[in-house]
Model the fold of this input.
Amino acid sequence: MAAGARAQTSAGWLQLGVETYGGVLLAPWYDRDLGLAGRIHVRHPDGRLEGLLLNVERPVAIIPSLAIHLDRDVNQGRPINAQTQMAPVFLQGGESSDLERLLMDWIAEQHGLKEVELLDFELGFHDMQPPARIGVAGELIASARLDNLLSCFTGLEALLASDGRQGVVLVANDHEEVGSASACGAQGTFLRDVLQRVSEQLGRGGEGEFIRLVQASRMISCDNAHALHPNFTDKHDAAHGPALNGGPVIKVNASQRYATNSATAAMFRDLCREAEVPVQTFVTRADMGCGSTIGPITATELGVPTLDVGAPQWAMHSIRETAGARDVEYLTRVLTAFCNRAELV
Done:
């Protein structure tokens, strides 16, 4: 949840205005210990501009619920207004000017800088509860932002574990949850620019050679999938209910919300067989809308044959999400096999 530049006061408390990022489950944000992190830009006395990372690793804010005595119908599906009901409580007795003072104090504490001018910032609130293994046998992992840091982690682990014989690129795009339309999003030119430079370094600088390089490649778009929820089994197609700890999920959609086709799915199933990893399939109910990923965007921008896969999880877009502990190893193993495969189909 992004902290806006607007500070406000109400009932003797300093609060920060917030913007939600993407499609967020709002209710789980109530009554959580919230830290603050992001990037701040400052001007030094010599006129030099610098961007600094800020991470306040202690609870500095909370969004308190309204007592049920004052809202008896809250459990009957009351809507939540992100503008008027989600502003975190930040400082008792504070004023709007205190926000800049606090930021300057944290800059001095974390970077040793005192004689700088605050110019601008990009900050977000985050849950301070640490990740945990859950379940009697530790079957589950629970954490913030499993969607999609779990895929970033498994992708990096696979890249580090690969034998290096095959050229492999790991790309982690920003802004996927809000449409990918940015300079660092999948709809931007970043990946194409990098691949073209790599092609030039390999002595394949012509456009035709670059196209052949792309067509000879395969892309796995890795983004978590919706696992079958034991309390809401009717939300899945009866034949496609991925289970936690059941292995990576191939995501299929006839309207191309996912980039998978039968050829790329067959390749992935063969990789799972080779890595001795179970594999599952997700197709959304025909009467429900379907989410999307960077897979179709990248396939459209580059023309690279692509498939969409991911580890199954519950509570996607909650402040705290849940996935299967064994699925992390499963996904890493099959992605490593992908990195090592000499011939792609």
